[in-house]
Amino acid sequence: MNKLFITLFTLVVVVLTGCNKDPEIIGGNNPPDYTKISTIKMQNYVNRMFIDLVGREPLDVEMDENVNLLRSNNLSVNARRQIIQKLQNSTDSVFGDGSYRKAYSQYMYNLAKVRTIEGASDEDINMRIGNIVFGMKEDSLLGDWESYNKGLLEKNNLQSILDTKVQFFDGQIPYDVFFSRMVNNSIYDFIHMNTFNFVNSTFEDLLWRFPTSTEFLVGFDIVEYNKPNLFFNKLCTNKKEYVDAICDTNEFFEGMIIWCYRTLLSREPKSQETSEILGEYILNRDIRKIQEKIMITDEYANF
Questions:
Q1: Quick check: 195 pLDDT over 70?
Q2: Nearest-CA neighbor of 175 among 110, 121, 122, 118?
Q3: What is the pLDDT of residue 81?
Q4: Cα gap 140→39, rounded to integer Å
Q5: How far apart are the first and last CA of the chain?
Q6: Any idea where the domains of the chain sit in the sequence?
Q7: Average pLDDT over residues 266-279
Q8: Do 148 and 139 form a contact (C-beta atoms < 8 A)?
Q9: Which residues contact 127 (CB under 8 A, 6 or more apart)?
Protein backbone atom coordinates (compact mmCIF):
# COMPACT_ATOMS: atom_id res chain seq x y z
CA MET A 1 0.00 0.00 0.00
CA ASN A 2 2.83 2.36 0.92
CA LYS A 3 4.68 1.54 -2.28
CA LEU A 4 1.53 2.22 -4.32
CA PHE A 5 1.03 5.61 -2.58
CA ILE A 6 4.66 6.60 -3.17
CA THR A 7 4.41 5.62 -6.83
CA LEU A 8 1.24 7.66 -7.38
CA PHE A 9 2.68 10.66 -5.52
CA THR A 10 5.84 10.54 -7.63
CA LEU A 11 3.77 10.37 -10.82
CA VAL A 12 1.72 13.44 -9.85
CA VAL A 13 4.87 15.42 -9.04
CA VAL A 14 6.43 14.50 -12.38
CA VAL A 15 3.30 15.49 -14.31
CA LEU A 16 2.93 18.82 -12.48
CA THR A 17 6.61 19.62 -12.88
CA GLY A 18 6.44 18.82 -16.56
CA CYS A 19 3.56 21.31 -17.02
CA ASN A 20 5.67 24.23 -15.82
CA LYS A 21 6.87 26.38 -18.71
CA ASP A 22 9.87 28.60 -18.86
CA PRO A 23 8.88 32.28 -18.58
CA GLU A 24 8.27 33.86 -21.99
CA ILE A 25 10.56 36.79 -22.71
CA ILE A 26 9.17 39.41 -25.07
CA GLY A 27 11.80 41.37 -26.92
CA GLY A 28 11.72 45.02 -27.95
CA ASN A 29 9.87 46.06 -24.81
CA ASN A 30 12.62 47.96 -23.04
CA PRO A 31 11.83 51.45 -21.68
CA PRO A 32 13.22 54.36 -23.74
CA ASP A 33 16.65 55.63 -22.82
CA TYR A 34 16.05 59.32 -22.12
CA THR A 35 19.59 59.95 -20.87
CA LYS A 36 20.63 60.75 -24.44
CA ILE A 37 17.97 63.45 -24.94
CA SER A 38 19.74 66.78 -25.38
CA THR A 39 18.96 69.96 -23.47
CA ILE A 40 17.94 71.61 -26.75
CA LYS A 41 15.27 68.96 -27.29
CA MET A 42 13.97 69.47 -23.78
CA GLN A 43 13.88 73.22 -24.34
CA ASN A 44 12.01 72.75 -27.61
CA TYR A 45 9.48 70.57 -25.82
CA VAL A 46 8.88 73.14 -23.08
CA ASN A 47 8.68 75.91 -25.67
CA ARG A 48 6.09 73.99 -27.62
CA MET A 49 3.97 73.32 -24.52
CA PHE A 50 3.89 77.03 -23.65
CA ILE A 51 2.95 78.07 -27.18
CA ASP A 52 0.20 75.44 -27.51
CA LEU A 53 -1.35 76.09 -24.11
CA VAL A 54 -0.83 79.76 -23.24
CA GLY A 55 0.02 81.20 -26.64
CA ARG A 56 3.54 82.43 -25.90
CA GLU A 57 7.11 81.27 -25.43
CA PRO A 58 8.40 80.76 -21.88
CA LEU A 59 10.57 83.36 -20.20
CA ASP A 60 14.15 82.31 -19.43
CA VAL A 61 13.31 81.60 -15.80
CA GLU A 62 10.29 79.51 -16.83
CA MET A 63 12.38 77.60 -19.35
CA ASP A 64 15.10 76.80 -16.81
CA GLU A 65 12.60 75.76 -14.14
CA ASN A 66 10.71 73.34 -16.40
CA VAL A 67 13.75 71.87 -18.14
CA ASN A 68 15.28 71.18 -14.72
CA LEU A 69 12.06 69.49 -13.66
CA LEU A 70 12.14 67.24 -16.72
CA ARG A 71 15.84 66.45 -16.35
CA SER A 72 15.67 65.66 -12.62
CA ASN A 73 12.79 63.26 -13.26
CA ASN A 74 14.38 61.60 -16.30
CA LEU A 75 11.66 63.04 -18.58
CA SER A 76 9.02 60.94 -16.82
CA VAL A 77 5.38 61.09 -17.87
CA ASN A 78 4.50 62.47 -14.44
CA ALA A 79 6.94 65.37 -14.87
CA ARG A 80 5.51 66.16 -18.30
CA ARG A 81 1.98 65.97 -16.93
CA GLN A 82 2.93 68.30 -14.08
CA ILE A 83 4.01 71.03 -16.50
CA ILE A 84 0.94 70.62 -18.71
CA GLN A 85 -1.50 70.75 -15.80
CA LYS A 86 0.27 73.77 -14.34
CA LEU A 87 -0.13 75.69 -17.60
CA GLN A 88 -3.79 74.71 -17.85
CA ASN A 89 -4.88 75.16 -14.25
CA SER A 90 -2.50 77.18 -12.06
CA THR A 91 -4.00 80.35 -10.63
CA ASP A 92 -0.73 81.48 -9.07
CA SER A 93 0.25 84.99 -10.09
CA VAL A 94 2.30 85.18 -13.30
CA PHE A 95 3.70 88.47 -14.57
CA GLY A 96 1.98 89.59 -17.77
CA ASP A 97 -0.60 86.79 -17.80
CA GLY A 98 -2.30 87.22 -14.45
CA SER A 99 -2.04 83.46 -14.11
CA TYR A 100 -1.37 80.49 -16.39
CA ARG A 101 -5.03 79.51 -16.15
CA LYS A 102 -6.11 82.96 -17.29
CA ALA A 103 -3.68 82.88 -20.22
CA TYR A 104 -4.83 79.35 -21.10
CA SER A 105 -8.50 80.38 -21.08
CA GLN A 106 -7.74 83.40 -23.25
CA TYR A 107 -5.74 81.34 -25.74
CA MET A 108 -8.41 78.62 -26.01
CA TYR A 109 -10.99 81.35 -26.52
CA ASN A 110 -8.91 82.82 -29.35
CA LEU A 111 -8.50 79.40 -30.98
CA ALA A 112 -12.25 78.82 -30.95
CA LYS A 113 -12.85 82.19 -32.62
CA VAL A 114 -10.24 81.48 -35.27
CA ARG A 115 -11.82 78.10 -36.02
CA THR A 116 -15.34 79.51 -36.45
CA ILE A 117 -15.64 83.30 -36.86
CA GLU A 118 -12.30 84.11 -38.50
CA GLY A 119 -10.82 85.40 -35.25
CA ALA A 120 -13.22 88.32 -34.84
CA SER A 121 -11.90 90.61 -32.12
CA ASP A 122 -13.76 91.39 -28.91
CA GLU A 123 -13.75 95.04 -30.00
CA ASP A 124 -15.62 94.10 -33.18
CA ILE A 125 -18.12 92.01 -31.22
CA ASN A 126 -18.73 94.85 -28.75
CA MET A 127 -19.18 97.33 -31.61
CA ARG A 128 -21.80 95.07 -33.17
CA ILE A 129 -23.58 94.78 -29.83
CA GLY A 130 -23.57 98.58 -29.51
CA ASN A 131 -25.13 98.97 -32.96
CA ILE A 132 -27.80 96.42 -32.13
CA VAL A 133 -28.67 98.13 -28.83
CA PHE A 134 -29.00 101.47 -30.67
CA GLY A 135 -31.36 99.84 -33.17
CA MET A 136 -33.38 98.25 -30.36
CA LYS A 137 -33.95 101.69 -28.80
CA GLU A 138 -35.32 102.97 -32.10
CA ASP A 139 -37.53 99.88 -32.46
CA SER A 140 -38.95 100.40 -28.97
CA LEU A 141 -39.77 104.05 -29.72
CA LEU A 142 -41.54 102.98 -32.91
CA GLY A 143 -43.33 100.13 -31.14
CA ASP A 144 -41.76 97.59 -33.52
CA TRP A 145 -41.50 94.82 -30.94
CA GLU A 146 -40.87 92.10 -33.48
CA SER A 147 -37.67 93.83 -34.61
CA TYR A 148 -36.85 94.67 -31.00
CA ASN A 149 -37.04 91.01 -29.94
CA LYS A 150 -35.03 89.94 -32.97
CA GLY A 151 -32.33 92.45 -32.00
CA LEU A 152 -32.40 91.26 -28.38
CA LEU A 153 -31.81 87.67 -29.48
CA GLU A 154 -28.94 88.74 -31.73
CA LYS A 155 -27.41 90.84 -28.93
CA ASN A 156 -27.62 87.96 -26.45
CA ASN A 157 -26.02 85.55 -28.92
CA LEU A 158 -23.06 87.88 -29.40
CA GLN A 159 -22.75 88.55 -25.67
CA SER A 160 -22.67 84.80 -25.04
CA ILE A 161 -19.47 84.62 -27.12
CA LEU A 162 -17.78 87.18 -24.87
CA ASP A 163 -19.02 85.38 -21.76
CA THR A 164 -17.48 82.02 -22.69
CA LYS A 165 -13.93 83.01 -21.73
CA VAL A 166 -14.78 83.90 -18.13
CA GLN A 167 -17.24 81.02 -17.76
CA PHE A 168 -14.62 78.55 -19.00
CA PHE A 169 -12.03 80.02 -16.62
CA ASP A 170 -14.46 79.65 -13.72
CA GLY A 171 -15.32 76.07 -14.70
CA GLN A 172 -18.97 76.91 -15.40
CA ILE A 173 -18.96 75.47 -18.93
CA PRO A 174 -16.95 72.81 -20.80
CA TYR A 175 -14.94 73.91 -23.81
CA ASP A 176 -17.30 72.40 -26.38
CA VAL A 177 -19.96 74.98 -25.41
CA PHE A 178 -17.72 77.57 -27.06
CA PHE A 179 -18.57 76.13 -30.44
CA SER A 180 -22.34 76.02 -30.08
CA ARG A 181 -22.16 79.75 -29.33
CA MET A 182 -19.56 80.54 -31.97
CA VAL A 183 -21.78 79.28 -34.81
CA ASN A 184 -25.10 80.70 -33.57
CA ASN A 185 -24.62 84.44 -34.05
CA SER A 186 -24.75 87.20 -36.65
CA ILE A 187 -20.97 87.16 -37.28
CA TYR A 188 -21.01 83.50 -38.33
CA ASP A 189 -24.12 84.23 -40.42
CA PHE A 190 -22.40 87.17 -42.12
CA ILE A 191 -19.35 85.04 -42.97
CA HIS A 192 -21.47 82.27 -44.49
CA MET A 193 -24.12 84.49 -46.10
CA ASN A 194 -27.17 82.21 -46.21
CA THR A 195 -28.80 79.04 -44.84
CA PHE A 196 -27.37 76.86 -47.62
CA ASN A 197 -23.83 77.79 -46.60
CA PHE A 198 -24.69 77.81 -42.89
CA VAL A 199 -25.79 74.17 -42.84
CA ASN A 200 -22.79 73.00 -44.86
CA SER A 201 -20.38 75.08 -42.77
CA THR A 202 -21.66 73.88 -39.39
CA PHE A 203 -21.11 70.28 -40.48
CA GLU A 204 -17.66 71.05 -41.83
CA ASP A 205 -16.56 73.22 -38.87
CA LEU A 206 -17.98 70.99 -36.13
CA LEU A 207 -17.98 67.44 -37.54
CA TRP A 208 -15.20 67.75 -40.14
CA ARG A 209 -17.45 66.51 -42.93
CA PHE A 210 -20.27 67.68 -45.18
CA PRO A 211 -23.87 66.66 -44.48
CA THR A 212 -25.57 63.85 -46.32
CA SER A 213 -28.36 64.95 -48.67
CA THR A 214 -30.97 63.96 -46.07
CA GLU A 215 -29.16 65.76 -43.24
CA PHE A 216 -28.85 68.87 -45.38
CA LEU A 217 -32.53 68.99 -46.37
CA VAL A 218 -33.74 68.43 -42.82
CA GLY A 219 -31.27 70.96 -41.40
CA PHE A 220 -32.12 73.54 -44.04
CA ASP A 221 -35.85 73.33 -43.31
CA ILE A 222 -35.27 73.67 -39.56
CA VAL A 223 -33.00 76.72 -39.88
CA GLU A 224 -34.71 78.50 -42.77
CA TYR A 225 -38.38 77.76 -42.10
CA ASN A 226 -38.49 76.67 -38.43
CA LYS A 227 -40.00 73.44 -39.72
CA PRO A 228 -40.08 70.80 -36.93
CA ASN A 229 -38.15 67.62 -37.67
CA LEU A 230 -35.88 65.05 -36.09
CA PHE A 231 -32.24 66.03 -36.39
CA PHE A 232 -29.63 63.73 -34.84
CA ASN A 233 -32.52 62.02 -33.00
CA LYS A 234 -33.69 65.28 -31.43
CA LEU A 235 -36.83 67.22 -32.27
CA CYS A 236 -35.70 70.61 -33.56
CA THR A 237 -37.89 73.56 -34.51
CA ASN A 238 -35.43 76.43 -34.92
CA LYS A 239 -31.82 77.40 -35.52
CA LYS A 240 -30.75 77.27 -31.87
CA GLU A 241 -32.17 73.78 -31.43
CA TYR A 242 -30.41 72.74 -34.66
CA VAL A 243 -27.07 73.97 -33.26
CA ASP A 244 -27.67 72.41 -29.85
CA ALA A 245 -28.49 69.07 -31.49
CA ILE A 246 -25.39 68.94 -33.67
CA CYS A 247 -23.20 69.93 -30.69
CA ASP A 248 -24.60 67.14 -28.51
CA THR A 249 -23.58 64.17 -30.64
CA ASN A 250 -20.80 61.63 -30.28
CA GLU A 251 -19.67 62.71 -33.73
CA PHE A 252 -19.19 66.28 -32.49
CA PHE A 253 -17.21 65.06 -29.48
CA GLU A 254 -15.11 62.94 -31.84
CA GLY A 255 -14.60 66.10 -33.88
CA MET A 256 -13.09 67.76 -30.81
CA ILE A 257 -10.54 64.94 -30.62
CA ILE A 258 -9.77 65.34 -34.33
CA TRP A 259 -9.28 69.08 -33.82
CA CYS A 260 -6.84 68.52 -30.94
CA TYR A 261 -4.75 66.08 -32.97
CA ARG A 262 -4.73 68.43 -35.94
CA THR A 263 -3.64 71.43 -33.89
CA LEU A 264 -1.10 69.63 -31.70
CA LEU A 265 0.29 66.90 -33.99
CA SER A 266 -0.74 68.08 -37.47
CA ARG A 267 -2.37 64.73 -38.21
CA GLU A 268 -5.62 62.85 -37.80
CA PRO A 269 -6.01 60.57 -34.78
CA LYS A 270 -5.86 56.84 -35.42
CA SER A 271 -9.01 54.83 -34.74
CA GLN A 272 -7.48 53.30 -31.63
CA GLU A 273 -6.45 56.72 -30.31
CA THR A 274 -9.96 58.06 -30.78
CA SER A 275 -11.59 55.07 -29.11
CA GLU A 276 -9.24 55.36 -26.11
CA ILE A 277 -10.23 58.99 -25.53
CA LEU A 278 -13.85 59.29 -26.70
CA GLY A 279 -15.65 57.50 -23.86
CA GLU A 280 -13.96 59.53 -21.13
CA TYR A 281 -14.42 62.77 -23.05
CA ILE A 282 -18.15 62.19 -23.56
CA LEU A 283 -18.44 61.54 -19.82
CA ASN A 284 -16.31 64.47 -18.56
CA ARG A 285 -16.12 66.81 -21.59
CA ASP A 286 -12.73 68.06 -20.44
CA ILE A 287 -10.59 69.29 -23.34
CA ARG A 288 -7.59 69.46 -21.00
CA LYS A 289 -7.44 65.68 -20.76
CA ILE A 290 -7.26 65.29 -24.55
CA GLN A 291 -4.44 67.82 -24.74
CA GLU A 292 -2.61 66.14 -21.88
CA LYS A 293 -2.87 62.68 -23.44
CA ILE A 294 -1.32 64.00 -26.65
CA MET A 295 1.31 66.27 -25.12
CA ILE A 296 2.87 63.70 -22.77
CA THR A 297 3.81 61.49 -25.73
CA ASP A 298 7.29 61.18 -27.21
CA GLU A 299 5.75 61.95 -30.60
CA TYR A 300 4.63 65.39 -29.44
CA ALA A 301 7.85 65.99 -27.50
CA ASN A 302 9.94 64.84 -30.49
CA PHE A 303 12.09 62.63 -28.27
A1: yes
A2: 110
A3: 98
A4: 66
A5: 70
A6: 37-102
A7: 96
A8: yes
A9: none
